[in-house]
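User: Can you help me understand a structure? I only have the sequence.
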Amino acid sequence: MSRRTPAAGSPASGGALDAPGTGYPGGVRIDKWLWAARFFKTRGLAQEAIEAGHVLLGGDKVKMSRTLRVGDQLSIRAGGYVRVVRIEGLSEQRGPAPVAQKLYEETAESIRDRVEEQARRAMQAEPADAIERGRPTKRDRRLIQRLRYAD
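Assistant: Let's start by predicting it. Here is the structure, written out as tokens:
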């Protein structure tokens, strides 16, 4: 019986996910990297975002098979926000969140714009707050029925 050894750079191997310039000389597919960096919960969601044009590499739309390299700059629109990140490391394996955050660095402008957008949204009124009462309960419905069809 042969034992599989952990992939170089995987959390199981005890190392960082990828030191720049090691482990992935040809690069990593963009959909795998977005999933490994935890921008999307599944590779399928990452692929849908790429196809929809929500992921830009250097300002241009990309295909799923596009390989990423350390130093590339991505613009990712997800969750109502746009994040501009510079790739610091490569990985095809999804690891813990603290390790995944080391794969990229968000630009200062992106952080500032995201914080401003969050503040702007917090200041807007929530439409659901205007509704005093929601859907009638079973008891309310029966009362309405009695009043509506009372002889």
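Now, to help you interpret it: Residues 124 and 130 are 12 Å apart (CA to CA). The helical segments are 30-36, 43-51, 97-100, 108-123, 138-148. Let me know which part you'd like to focus on.
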